[in-house]
Hints:
The protein is mostly helical.
Amino acid sequence: MAFNPIPIRLKQARQLVGISQKELGxxxxxxxxxxxxxxxxxxxxxxxxxxETLRKLAAELNVxxxxxxxxxxxxxxxxxxxxxxxxxxxxxxxxxxKKPTS
Length: 102
């Protein structure tokens, strides 16, 4: 079975914001009676949210969509940091990363 980073990233981002599974589910439009259970299934990896649900989760948790797909912590942290840069800073970062190293 292939590694699925979504459950780990989802739990990390939710805990960082400091809300419960139920609260997160409700905030993205899930029915109050099923929000906790559905979010628990996502965090346990029993079910994988569809892309639209991931978009809602990303917006609510203030992380970029690609954060959920990062396979390691450094990439996840970079994804979050880059997402919060303005376009000018993103272009400068790209230019800097493309510079040959000696």
